[in-house]
Fold:
Amino acid sequence: MIVIVQGRVIFSYDVTHTSKVASVRKSMLGMLYGKYTFDNTIDLDKTVKQLGLDDKGPFIPMEEKATLVQLLASRSGIYLPARERPETLSPWDQGRYMPPRGSAYPGSQFVCNNWDFDAAGTAFENLPHKDIYEALQTDLAVPTGMQDYDIAKQKKIPSPDSVHPEYAMYLSTRDMAQLGLLMPDFGVWNGKIVVPSDWVRYITTLITSFADEYPAALRNAGDPARWGYGLLWWVWDAPMFPGNTYIGPLQGAYSAMGSGGQYITVLPAKDMVVVHQVDIDKDPHAFVSPSSYMAMLSMLANANCDTHCQ
Structure:
């Protein structure tokens, strides 16, 4: 774990070890998309059909209309891979809760579906014709001075049900923190634009509210977390109070999140970046629950030093 406030490290523990970051990879891909979207190499309005993203089975007519930006928002309406008997699957298999194909028009419904994210990875590589891991090195790791990034450790994980592999990423906590620090500075590092500033704003703007997420487990009303979704980043969903009547520490927050306890969380109201990582390579069952992480995050966000703080 590492905690950075106003650009200074105030806490760190075991930050050099590299391990799989699970779904944090999606937010990293979101950052990579910015450069190529702004130089018009990538057109977010192209459809999955135009992009040649057909899977092992063809798209149905409705699915063909889904656009690349809808993949990034997890609102494509493409519910693959289809499962014949979802009730027989494990509780953690996405196929257990996936809606039927053709049940929602593209853009109309958020469903947390890895097919969208993996297909977005394939689209990225096909458009600038650049490997994701090479782009991560040249576009983010080198400009920000990431110390532990090793392209040789990165590997894609094939899917038996899809032509689109999982673009797994293996990073250290301090390298995740470098990328976290890039976001509240709107993509600028040492005076150089690494990610276009308007792109940072765009991907961290709420698109799907907490109440509209699917499956329902993502919107547990009894949980203190209120994370909606932007483009490949989770975005804090809370009402904005008029003026400066009240600004909570999580107002404007956004986060990259991965199963097991992988997080890069930015709290602009506190000028704070919090990174938390669990080694799921060493122990696939290692787990820090979202509620436990939120408890830690809340304690950090509400910890204030007095006037003598240096």
Observations:
- The chain is about 25% helix and 15% strand.
- Helices lie at 24-38, 68-72, 114-126, 132-144, 173-182, 197-203, 290-301.
